[in-house]
Design a protein that fits this description.
mainly beta, Jelly Rolls, Purple Acid Phosphatase, chain A, domain 2, 2 domains, 6-stranded antiparallel beta sheet, elongated, binds fe (ii) ion
């Protein structure tokens, strides 16, 4: 049946939410630091490593399996001193397989030989000017910035240093787009190295420019922080979301002091961070080696994402899009437990086209074992704590909704119950909205 357009309802203005920018293709990044063991390391084992050390072959196998567009190296790429011969003997057979798409940042171990000559010699022009080591580039509508946190090698990292002045100018020249910066030493970390105010000026400049993401390594852990200010105050509206991804293979360390705003921590798995860059937001996954288990994931719009302009409604034959009473699957079970935040892919199902920006739908709650409410959000949006549908224990409730689609053309359902329990969720779609230019 062809879709019918409701001429009476043209240019229905949706609530103010970021657009999905579905016209551009996303790019997939892999990011990680603290990678290749010294060939003389007792755990080198011909490059294969052991269960607890020198897993650069396994992490690079995982990265290859993700078929990334680009690889961001977060420093300490080659232990123990970044010598040229060691790059060739250890890094090159493992992560070197991705060299053609690699955008590196240098770590302290890369500066173990004068001027990090092995690092700059191995990566060549991709590492930038050897006297600086900081540079920037654009990818999939994003601006990406590699910084050099080996401050003594480049005239400092503080306010007024050549690097800080370059960063501020680079940000000013690339305003209004999603922005990610990466370097080796974290400003905030629950790992043994801890917080380090040496990098405050980087954070100040990035925060002032409304940048979105900071990636570092150095601590051999995985950690994700909630968006926060340079002063470590939670700031969901415009804070920088920071990750520490020092799980590239050398070894793993520990989490001695949990820092403010730390949301997810793992010191037990080697792995890599995958980031899918959409023009207006990003989707992240932390994947472990030996099977690619997803240990952390989420999505967020960028601070620069625009609001919806306007959209037109197209009706569809009523169609059951989601039913958690069905067998487990992307739009099926299991039921939603208390505190869950689950993303459901939408495009392509029930005749919903890839360029749909929102749905017209009927949401139904079945068999809640507790009272509570659901909040239905475009995937990538911060929760607001408002209710899309409210219910009491055992009650069946329905509500008609307009639901904006988020990153990956998905909607996220957050479950808030009065205690431990679960609820079934059914969504019947009756139409979709498509963006239209205002004439
Ligand atoms: Fe380091």
């Amino acid at each position: 049946m062809p879709h019918s357009r409701l001429a009476c309802c043209a240019f229905l203005v949706l609530f103010s939410l970021p657009g999905t920018g579905s016209e551009a293709q996303p790019a997939v990044l892999v990011a990680v630091g603290d990678l290749a063991c010294d060939p003389a390391d007792g755990s080198f084992n011909g490059g294969d490593g052991t269960a607890t050390a020198c897993r650069m072959k396994a992490t690079s196998d995982l990265a290859l399996s993700l078929a990334p567009t680009a690889v961001l190296l977060l420093g300490d790429n080659q232990y123990d001193d970044g010598a040229a011969a060691k790059y060739l003997a250890s890094f090159d057979p493992s992560w070197g397989r991705l060299k053609a798409i690699t955008k590196p940042a240098p770590g302290n171990h890369d500066y173990g030989v004068p001027g990090a000559a092995g690092y700059y010699g191995y990566f060549g022009a991709a590492a930038g000017d050897p006297a600086k080591g900081y540079y920037s580039f654009d990818l999939a509508g994003w601006h990406l910035i590699a910084l050099n946190s080996n401050c003594g090698a480049v005239g400092g990292c503080g306010v007024g240093s050549p690097q800080e002045q370059w960063l501020a100018a680079d940000l000013a020249a690339h305003s209004g787009v999603c922005t990610l910066a990466y370097w080796h030493h974290p400003r905030f970390s629950s790992g043994p190295h801890g917080d380090d105010a040496t990098y405050d000026a980087f954070w100040q400049a990035l925060y002032a420019a409304r940048a979105d993401v900071v990636l570092t390594g150095h601590d051999h852990i995985y950690e994700r922080f909630a968006p926060q200010t340079p002063g470590a105050v939670a700031d969901p509206a415009r804070g920088l979301r920071a990750f520490v991804v020092g799980t590239g293979g050398r070894n793993l360390t520990s989490l001695p002091i949990v820092r403010a705003n730390s949301e997810v921590r793992d010191a037990a798995h080697f792995g890599v961070l995958e980031m899918t860059l959409h023009p207006t937001g990003y989707v992240w996954r932390f994947l472990a080696v030996d099977g690619g288990a997803v240990l952390d994931q989420g999505a967020s719009f960028c601070h620069s994402a625009p609001g919806w302009p306007s959209a037109e409604l197209y009706t569809l034959p009523p169609c059951r899009l989601i039913d958690t009473r069905n067998p487990d699957g992307p739009r099926g079970g299991p039921p939603l437990p208390h505190g869950a935040s689950r993303s459901f892919p939408v495009a392509g199902a029930c005749g919903i086209p890839a360029d749909a920006v929102a749905l017209s739908a009927n949401a139904t709650i079945v068999g809640p074992t507790r009272s509570g409410y659901l909040e239905i959000l475009p995937t990538g949006s911060a929760p607001t704590g408002t209710s899309s549908i409210t219910f009491r224990t055992g009650q069946m409730r329905s509500n008609n909704l307009q639901i904006a689609l988020g990153l990956d053309d998905a909607v996220t359902v957050r479950t808030a119950l009065s205690g431990a329990g679960s609820v079934h969720f059914v969504l019947d779609v009756t139409g979709y909205y498509r963006e239209e230019p205002i004439p």
